[in-house]
Amino acid sequence: MFTLPTQSLKGTVSEQEWQARVDLAACYRLVADMRWGDLIYTHISAKVPGTEHYLVNAFGLTFDEVTASNLVKVDLDGNILDETPYGINPAGFTIHSAIHEVRHDAECVIHLHTLATISVASVKGGLKPWSQYSMFSLPSLSYHEYEGLAVDDAERKRLQDDLGDTNHMLLPNHGGLTLGPTVGDAFMRFYDLQRACEIQLALMQSNEEVIEIPQPIIDGIYDQAKVVHSGATGGQKAWPAMLRKAYKLDPGFCE
């Protein structure tokens, strides 16, 4: 009950898969540290490089218990591919599999139920251009209406159509979602989305008139971001620092 099964996959999988496992496990630990988790629920998935297989958290573990070795490898249908003492939440993987199926540029998908993203997603008008953080999400933001628990296969197509080619999604009454070509990019996109929502909530509670950012600035923000970040999201710049932070929190994540 209190002792988790232990196993080590280091040296038994390819170097590319092991690095993907380390990055994804670090992401789970960082999400836990940011207090963005939801007990044993919500999910972050990452593609195993060079395959159509995916890594996701074992169902029943908190995010600060996730390690590189106890991540579960599955196919797009959620079938477990390797011998493991763990299972997954099939309903939780529905959203991720739907996105990975059509967005081959999405090496990582983050879907979380944070107070800020649920709140902003659930008010009329959604995310507003009220902060610099919102600038990184608004040019590539979509919405998907709530249809209940994500267990209906028919919802997959509607989710895919709503997402289109965007990299950020707000799900009214549900939460937030980001994706990226690396774990670092997906993480930084969620960080920016989360911060934008937190700031919007603070401004809404102020009952003061808010200064909105003009549309031409929103339209040009990606070009500006490339100068600042050496990339559209800053994932490649920020991720090494985030990995160092994860190691400082608990180096056990990379076991």
TrEMBL record:
Class II aldolase/adducin N-terminal domain location, by residue?
22-201
* Cited InterPro entries: Aldolase-II_Adducin_sf (IPR051017), Aldolase_II/adducin_N (IPR001303), Aldolase_II/adducin_N_sf (IPR036409)
Record's Gene3D superfamilies? Class II aldolase/adducin N-terminal domain (3.40.225.10)
> What GO cellular-component annotations does this UniProt entry give?
cytoskeleton
Q: What domain of life is recorded for the organism? A: Bacteria
What SUPFAM superfamilies does this protein map onto? AraD/HMP-PK domain-like
An example molecular function term from Gene Ontology annotations: actin filament binding
Q: Fetch the Pfam families from UniProt.
A: Aldolase_II
A biological-process GO annotation: monosaccharide metabolic process
- Give the family, as the similarity comment puts it: Belongs to the aldolase class II family.
Q: Which PANTHER family match?
A: ADDUCIN (PTHR10672), PROTEIN HU-LI TAI SHAO (PTHR10672:SF3)
User: Could you identify this protein by its name?
Assistant: Class II aldolase
Q: Which organism is it from?
A: Alteromonas genovensis
Output the lineage of the source organism.
Bacteria, Pseudomonadati, Pseudomonadota, Gammaproteobacteria, Alteromonadales
